[in-house]
Design a protein that fits this description.
The structure is a homodimer. Chain A has about 170 residues and is mainly alpha-helical. Chain A is built from seven helices and three strands, in the order αααβααββαα. Chain A has a three-stranded antiparallel β-sheet with strand order 1-3-2. In chain A, a hairpin with a 2-residue loop joins strand 2 and strand 3. The first copy, chain A, is globular and about 65 Å long. The interface between A and B is large, with 95 and 95 residues. Chain A binds a DNA duplex (23 and 23 nucleotides) through helix 2, helix 5 and strand 3.
DNA sequence: TATTGTTATACTCTATAACTATA
DNA sequence: TATAGTTATAGAGTATAACAATA
C-alpha cells in the first residue's frame, strides 16, 4: 500500500473538471468518432464465440482458416498460404507443425523446387474440417444471426472494400 | 533435417485429390461463408495502422480508449471503466498504472467508498489526448476513407447491432 | 458475503531478425 | 543474389485464480 502510484495526491491545479460521475451514466460519446473501436468490439465478440465453437475439434481460428485453404487448394505452398491469409511465414510454420502432428495435413517435397513443401489435407483433416465448418455455421448464426441478409452482405462487402482499398493504396 | 514432421512420407491413401496447384490462382472460396474471417482481416489492418498512428504519443489502442473515457467521464471508477470498455479488471490495473506513471491520469481515493479510486485526467493527459484524437482522425481517413458516409454509418450501425444483440442473448 | 482493486500467471497472437538449403 | 522454410524471441493482447481491504 506504499506504492507511490496508488497514494499520490491529486494535482488539482491540473484538472479542469473534478466532478465525480458517481452513480451517473457512463458516457461513451467520445468513442462515436472512433470507428476502429467498434470493429474491435465486434472482433472480440466474434473471436471469443468462434474459439469456443472450434474448441471441441482442437482448432483455433487460424488453424481452421489454414485447414480450409489447404483442403480447397491441394498442393498449396506455405509461402502462398501465408500470403493468402496474411500470416507471417514464421508463424505459419508452427501452425502447420501442429496440424501435421495431428495428422490432419502433410508436407510433400516439391520435386521441381526442393526448397518448397506442397501441402495436402489427409482424410482425417478433410473429415474434421467438415465438422468444424458446421460448428462455424452455428457460430455465425449466433454472432451474425440478428442481421438481415442485406445487412450481412453489406457488412462483408464493406469489410472487403476496406481491406482491398487499404492494401492497394498504403502499406 | 531429421525432424519427422518434415521428412514423413505422405500417406497417399489418405488423400483424395493429389493435384498440385502450382502456379495456379489460390482460391479463397472456402472463406466466403466465413464472415468472422473478414471481420478479423479488417481488424488487423485497422489495428496495425492505428498502432502506428498512436506511436508518436506513446499510446496503444487500449490506452487511447481508456484516456478518452477518463477525459469524458471525470471521476470514473476503474470497475465502471473496465465494464464500459469490456476490459478485464486485472488488465486495466496495469493500463492505469502506465497512464499514471506518465502523469496523464491520477487515481483519487473516493471518500464514500474507500475501496474505489476515482479516475481523472491531468492537464497533460487532456492535451495529449487532443493530439492523439487528431492522429486517430487521420488514421480513420486512411482506413475508412474509401467508404461513403452511408457505408461508414451502415458499418458502425451493423457492428453495434451485432454486439448489442449478442450480449443481450447469449454470453 | 460481496465488491474494488490488486498480484501473479499463462496462453494466444503478432512481428522481426537471422539462419539453412536451395534456386 | 533471391526465395522457401525455419528457429528463436519478444512484445501485445487476453483470461483466470486468488488475495487484501472495504462495504
Amino acid at each position: 500500500m506504499d506504492d507511490p502510484l496508488k497514494t499520490s495526491a491529486r494535482d488539482h491545479a491540473n484538472v479542469p473538471a473534478p466532478a465525480a460521475s458517481d452513480a451517473t451514466q457512463v458516457s461513451d460519446a467520445g468513442l462515436r468518432e472512433f470507428t476502429g473501436y467498434f470493429v474491435k468490439r465486434t472482433y472480440s465478440v466474434m473471436r471469443a464465440d468462434l474459439a469456443q465453437a472450434l474448441k471441441p475439434f482442437g482448432l483455433r481460428m487460424v488453424t481452421f482458416s489454414v485447414l480450409v485453404m489447404i483442403v480447397d487448394n491441394p498442393g498449396l505452398r506455405q509461402s502462398q498460404l501465408a500470403a493468402a491469409l496474411a500470416i507471417e511465414r514464421p508463424n505459419l510454420v508452427v501452425i502447420i507443425d501442429e496440424l501435421q502432428r495431428r495428422k490432419l495435413v502433410v508436407r510433400d517435397r516439391v520435386p521441381t523446387d526442393r526448397r518448397a513443401y506442397a501441402l495436402h489435407a489427409t482424410k482425417a483433416g478433410v473429415e474434421l474440417l467438415e465438422q468444424a465448418r458446421q460448428a462455424n455455421r452455428d457460430h455465425e448464426a449466433r454472432v451474425f444471426g440478428m442481421l438481415s441478409d442485406a445487412e450481412r452482405e453489406g457488412l462483408v462487402a464493406t469489410l472487403r472494400k476496406i481491406e482491398a482499398k487499404y492494401m492497394e493504396d498504403g502499406s
